[in-house]
Q: What sequence folds into this?
């Protein structure tokens, strides 16, 4: 019976992408990028993001993009999660975080709670999960564009009412 139970247990080993992400984090912590290398890395990052869009976008047909754009329920969930649920999580964490962080740092946490996800991570994680990449591209793009206008409004509302005056 133990052999049967052992076989049915799921394995929680990280995949190669997660291991590479952790390795990058450790490397960046030990050897932070500065000076000319920082400029080169910034350029390389932009090229990598453009390549990601190209590689995922070039394989998509026009019908797939239209089908992805028509997934209004998915887009509504993404927008509500990004601009309502995450800021509410930030507010809910205030009693827990208040004794641990300064008001200015808490303001930064609230700010992070209002930002949309990066498009490249949305696409990469959706592709890894074998999800609907065209819908992810459309949803992440719309979320980022709306975030340009909506994030400052949400941030000003949250910071003016939940971060005390003179704490900035």
A:
């Amino acid at each position: 019976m133990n052999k049967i139970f052992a076989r049915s247990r799921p394995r929680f080993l990280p995949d190669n992408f997660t291991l590479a992400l952790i390795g990058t984090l450790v490397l960046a912590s030990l050897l932070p990028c500065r000076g000319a290398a920082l400029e080169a890395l910034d350029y390389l990052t932009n090229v990598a993001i453009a390549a990601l869009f190209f590689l995922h976008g070039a394989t998509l047909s026009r019908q797939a993009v239209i089908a992805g754009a028509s997934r209004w329920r998915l887009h509504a969930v993404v927008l509500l999660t990004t601009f309502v649920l995450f800021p509410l999580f930030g507010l809910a964490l205030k009693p827990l975080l208040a004794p641990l962080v300064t008001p200015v740092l808490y303001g930064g946490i609230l700010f992070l709670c209002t930002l949309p996800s990066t498009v490249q991570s949305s696409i990469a994680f959706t592709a890894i999960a074998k999800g609907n990449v065209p819908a992810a591209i459309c949803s992440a793009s719309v979320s980022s564009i709306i975030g340009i206008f909506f994030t400052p409004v949400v941030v000003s509302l949250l910071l003016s009412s939940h971060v005390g005056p003179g704490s900035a």
